[in-house]
Amino acid sequence: MRLAELSERSGVTTATIKYYLREGLLPPGERISATQAEYGEEHLRRLRLVRALVQVGRIPVATAREVLTAIDDDRTDQLTRIGTAVAALPQPAPPRRRDETVVTAEALAGELQRRLGWRIVVDNPAHQALVTALAALLRLGYPCTVEQLLPYGAAADGLAAHEIALIGEFASPTTQLEAAVALTVLYEPVLLSLRRLAQAEAATRQLRGPS
Amino acid sequence: MRLAELSERSGVTTATIKYYLREGLLPPGERISATQAEYGEEHLRRLRLVRALVQVGRIPVATAREVLTAIDDDRTDQLTRIGTAVAALPQPAPPRRRDETVVTAEALAGELQRRLGWRIVVDNPAHQALVTALAALLRLGYPCTVEQLLPYGAAADGLAAHEIALIGEFASPTTQLEAAVALTVLYEPVLLSLRRLAQAEAATRQLRGPS
To answer: Hey, which residues 25-84 in chain A have their CB within 8 Å of chain B?
Structure first.
């Protein structure tokens, strides 16, 4: 298809598509003349992912490019590609200095993951993000023990199994990688808004009694 | 205690405490002379909450003030206060225009909550945030059916029961309200980082086989 059709089918303006092409977020089309290029279904699919990252996830263009580069890096296996792509997504900043609280938070993050039966990968940015979040709880004196954290880990475990099954429904390794990244970003606000709704429901039930 | 002791015990500089006092994030101390005021344990506790909101949650000062005003509003009952306080926390913006996708997303959000046995409160900002998140999934053509969403709702339900129990351990209605707000903000990054770690673990198990 030509640029105009790609724009119509994706709902993205031709100016924005050209911008994504210049920024390397979209691979170039196949040149068919000096001024025209042909685009395929993979461009349509990639545009969808770029919009998930940039428009919905509000991820900076440079970060989105890193994520897509990891997806496309065919020198590595599927697992490394998915790990690198998800790790490139924005994460909370790691703690600025490694004080006593951070050391306690690291021990807590490790113990929690051991209890959940997970491998501990300290250079996973999500591990660092967890340590930062636990250090904030500890520093402010809010409850934060392995027992209190386990329900969150168990919930995440259940969701991950569901998500891996969902991603498995996509046909090829590349579409699976793209879906993994898009669903990671797009389901975060779903989960957080459902948590707040569930809290409101639980508070109402407890304070007003069952409906 | 005097300002200097409040600063020492909270780890917040006197300049920042004075700023919070001026901005109405902290109630004034009891004046004991023209230049000195006396502060109590409630100031220390409130400072902890303000830091959770402003420093960790990166919530704008004006928004934090709204949240605290709702907590302190003794004209309303506990349930209204908790609802108003949590609703005042930052949420994703609602959809800009109510097109066909938004209508579908609203129906989906309603059906999901019915299936979970929750009351549907359309003016809860979290309900609007859920509709926005579902509309983004639908618009980009990613999987988004009630069946696929139910595991997220069930996970949120389980966590809410745990959180209500956690909050119930705080002594007074006011400290419970403060804890509800602080834990809503502080546990969001815990949940999101655990989800990413669980995904990494599930992907590793599936692609490499059990350890």
So the answer is: 48, 51-52, 56, 77-79, 82-83
* Closest CA–CA distance from residue B31 to any residue of chain A (Å): 27
The angle subtended at Cα A26 by Cα A35 and Cα B145, nearest 5°, is 130
Residue A210's pLDDT band, with cuts at 50, 70 and 90, is low
Question: Alpha-carbon distance B105 to B113, whole Å?
Answer: 12
**Other beta carbons within 10 Å of A125:** 18
Interface contact B151-A159, CB threshold 8 A? yes
The answer, yes or no, to whether residue B147 has pLDDT greater than 90, is yes
Show residues of chain B in contact with A195, CB under 8 Å: 156, 159-160, 188, 191
Whether residues B81 and B134 share a domain: the answer is no
Amino acid, single-letter form, for residue B121: V
For residue A34, the distance in angstroms to the closest alpha carbon of chain B comes to 32
User: pLDDT value at position A79?
Assistant: 77
Sign of CA dihedral A73, A79, A80, A84: positive
Which residue has tokens 């890193």? A66
pLDDT of residue B3: 93
Q: How confident is the model at residue B211, as a pLDDT? A: 52
- CATH number, domain with residue B71: 1.10.1660.10
B133 contacts on A by Cβ (under 8 Å):
186-187, 189-190, 193
Q: Residue A199: which of B48, B160, B194 has the nearest Cβ?
A: B160
Residue type, position B172, single letter: S
Residues A84 and A160 in one domain: no
Domain count, chain B: 2
- My answer on whether B42 and B101 are in the same domain is no
Q: Which residues contact A52 (CB under 8 A, 6 or more apart)?
A: A181, A182, A185, A186, B136, B140, B142
Helix intervals (H) in B12-145: 14-22, 41-51, 61-72, 78-88, 100-116, 125-139
Residues A37 and A83 in one domain: yes
* CB proximity under 8 Å: A 160-179 to B: 160-164, 166, 169, 179
Whether B200 and A124 lie within 8 Å, measured CB to CB? yes
ipTM, interface predicted TM-score of the complex: 0.86
Residue B195 at interface with chain A, using a CB cutoff of 8 Å: yes
Collect all residues of chain B within an 8 Å Cβ-Cβ radius of residue A153.
Answer: 194, 198
B36 and B64 both lie in a single domain: yes
- Interval A114-151: pLDDT, tens: 999 999 988 888 999 999 999 988 988 887 899 999 99
